[in-house]
């Protein structure tokens, strides 16, 4: 979102006071310029106050992968689909993690800061001298946001019945002494807030094509359905019957479409999936609720994606170089299916493309990913031959170098990615993919060269018209490189192409927190648990039809198979959207999908470790995050979370 004309960001830009909340949710003076007592005194000030509540959603992601905190998408590093530098987080991803972890306290503060601001808005709006129409709408928005914050807090810290402190109004700093409210009671309050938002006649059904960035009635239905779904699943882990909640979730998800939302598919081609995540379609009929971002010269209102996720040459117009701190875990790339024909899809299997791949040790599979050294029987270049031979004659590959094809190795690996679910190539940059990037640092505005992600690099990290350009190989596209000596799967969804972004550190594309495909797949989850398998298949089919992937009835033949398939579909559809970690936590599958797959912190494209950093499953207590030790030390009414070391 590039222009300040859009209301929420425009108000936030005009009211920089909303960025000044101290890192303590008990702080009772969160706004630097306007005191709460004077903020809610006119319609314009009330709109600014609400912008301050929305602003807490910006940058609320965890501080991982050298990010310093950025978007919600960073939660994917915690999940099955992504990976990053796990060695700078105080052992949070290893056995022995304690309740003193900075991640626990940072997220606790970020979420409760949102609660504080929402409570402040609800109290301030109640007596504000503004029209009843505006008051009703903004009050509904504030309750939606409070429910959103509490949903995340309760989902992470409140499981197994423990719950979290529930504050519905702000008090003096020394009065924040409540213990945890029982988990199910917190879910009930979330549902109450969302029901009141839904029942507000002045809350619009949707904001499709309006770029307001505000909560709508459709968003409230979607979030209430999600709360019912989460509560139903939590009841199941505690031996309680969640059927009525699954039914309520399905009913709410059905209402979302009635509010004007749907699958974005204007051209009827699979390219619609790619275009959905571009700036012109931020407020399409699929984007139900998003966090607004924009480009501005201060770089204060954009999302930090390009630097964290981009390949070396995929920064922005002010700085081409990116750090590649966050990348794709190979397991999710392998999860995208093969399209056999228009009526048939099947699971991907490496052995179908490279005989013996699965039985080859992970370290030695690198031989299949090496670049060609010949073209038409002629050596491509002495540099290429040199770097490839160095790999083949090294200790790791010398015993399997007979598996290498001097000409055709690249085509063999490319074939493994062809005829796959189109979302693979729209979400992930795979080995030997081509992408438009930048040419220098700072980049020239009139040049957007193409790069190919080959391995190993034939030269140092190089731009086409800048640093290292003299090392490029004549006659072939330059190498797209990670900002380290590794070949990773990289993120393509939300990535800038060429000069798409003005600034490396502040990208303009809004971050969706709820979109219609997500709703359809949660709806399918609820239907599976209700044994309504044909209906669940129909919801999944709506998602897959956009990219032309057949939806096989065999995958819905029984409840267990259908449940697993819907979960896999969520993993495929929602890569890089900050959702997977919360899914794996509520399903309690994180151990098997991430930690049991490999204890290597980061994996190269062929599954071997890229560094010595390890991760290890801390224990099943990890499915309920510990109340931070600092909070327990300050408030003796808080109960320590079982399993965590205090």
From TrEMBL:
Residues 285-644 form the RagB/SusD domain. Residues 1-22 form the signal peptide. Gene3D superfamilies: 1.25.40.390. It is found in: Cell outer membrane. Keywords: Cell outer membrane, Membrane, Signal. GO terms for cellular component: cell outer membrane. Residues 25-229 form the SusD-like N-terminal domain. Belongs to the SusD family. This is Starch-binding associating with outer membrane. It comes from Sphingobacterium wenxiniae.
């Amino acid at each position: 979102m590039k222009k300040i004309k859009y209301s929420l960001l425009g108000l936030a830009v005009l009211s920089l006071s909303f960025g000044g909340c101290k890192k303590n949710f008990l702080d009772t003076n969160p706004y630097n310029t306007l005191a709460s007592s004077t903020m809610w005194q006119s319609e314009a000030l009330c709109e600014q106050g609400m912008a301050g509540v929305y602003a807490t959603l910006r940058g609320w992601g965890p501080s991982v992968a050298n990010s310093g905190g950025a978007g919600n998408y960073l939660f994917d590093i915690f999940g099955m689909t992504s990976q990053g530098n796990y060695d700078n987080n105080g052992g949070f991803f290893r056995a022995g993690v304690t309740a003193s972890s900075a991640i626990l306290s940072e997220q606790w503060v970020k979420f409760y800061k949102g609660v504080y601001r929402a409570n402040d808005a609800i109290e301030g709006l109640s007596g504000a001298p503004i029209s009843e129409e505006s008051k009703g709408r903004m009050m509904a928005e504030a309750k939606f946001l409070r429910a959103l914050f509490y949903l995340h807090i309760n989902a992470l810290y409140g499981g197994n019945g423990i719950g979290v402190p529930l504050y519905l109004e702000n008090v003096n700093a020394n009065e924040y002494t409540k213990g945890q409210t029982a988990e199910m009671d917190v879910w009930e309050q979330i549902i109450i807030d969302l029901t009141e938002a839904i029942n507000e006649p002045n809350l619009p059904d949707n904001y499709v094509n309006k770029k307001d960035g505000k909560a709508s009635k459709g968003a409230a239905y979607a979030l209430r359905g999600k709360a019912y779904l989460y509560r139903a699943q939590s009841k199941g882990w505690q031996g309680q019957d969640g059927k009525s909640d699954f039914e309520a979730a399905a009913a709410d998800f059905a209402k979302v479409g009635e509010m004007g939302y749907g699958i974005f598919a204007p051209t009827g081609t699979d390219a619609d999936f790619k275009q959905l995540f571009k700036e012109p379609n931020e407020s399409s009929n699929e984007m139900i609720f998003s966090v607004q971002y924009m480009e501005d010269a201060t770089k204060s209102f954009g999302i930090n994606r390009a630097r964290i996720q981009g390949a070396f040459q995929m920064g922005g117009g002010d700085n081409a170089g990116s750090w590649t701190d966050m990348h794709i875990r190979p397991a999710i790339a392998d999860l995208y299916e093969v399209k056999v024909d228009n009526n048939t899809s099947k699971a991907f299997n490496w052995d179908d493309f490279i005989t013996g791949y699965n039985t080859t040790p992970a370290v030695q599979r690198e031989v299949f990913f090496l670049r060609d050294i010949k073209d038409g029987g002629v050596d491509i270049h002495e540099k290429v031959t040199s770097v490839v031979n160095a790999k083949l004659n090294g200790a790791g590959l010398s015993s399997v170098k007979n598996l290498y094809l001097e000409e055709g190795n690249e085509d063999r690996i490319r074939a493994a990615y062809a005829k796959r679910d189109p979302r693979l190539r729209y979400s992930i940059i795979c080995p030997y993919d081509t992408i438009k990037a930048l040419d220098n640092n700072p980049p020239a505005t009139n040049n957007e060269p193409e790069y190919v992600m080959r391995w190993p690099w034939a030269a140092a990290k190089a731009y086409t018209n800048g640093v290292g350009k003299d090392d490029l190989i004549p006659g072939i596209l330059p190498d797209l490189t990670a900002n380290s000596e590794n070949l990773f799967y990289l993120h393509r969804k939300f990535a800038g192409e060429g000069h798409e972004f003005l600034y490396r550190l502040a990208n303009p594309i809004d971050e969706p927190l709820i979109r219609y495909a997500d709703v359809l797949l949660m709806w399918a989850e609820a239907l599976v648990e209700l044994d309504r398998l044909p209906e669940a298949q129909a919801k999944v089919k709506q998602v897959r039809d956009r990219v032309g992937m057949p939806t096989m009835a065999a995958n819905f033949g029984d409840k267990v198979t259908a449940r697993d398939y819907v979960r896999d579909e969520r993993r495929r559809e929602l890569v890089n959207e900050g959702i997977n970690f919360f899914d794996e936590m509520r399903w309690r599958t994180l151990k098997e999908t991430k930690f049991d797959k490999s204890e290597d912190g980061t994996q190269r494209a062929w599954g071997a470790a890229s560094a010595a950093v390890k991760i290890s499953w801390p224990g099943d207590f990890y499915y309920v995050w510990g109340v931070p030790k600092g909070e327990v030390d300050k408030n003796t009414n808080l109960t320590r979370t079982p399993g965590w070391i205090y």
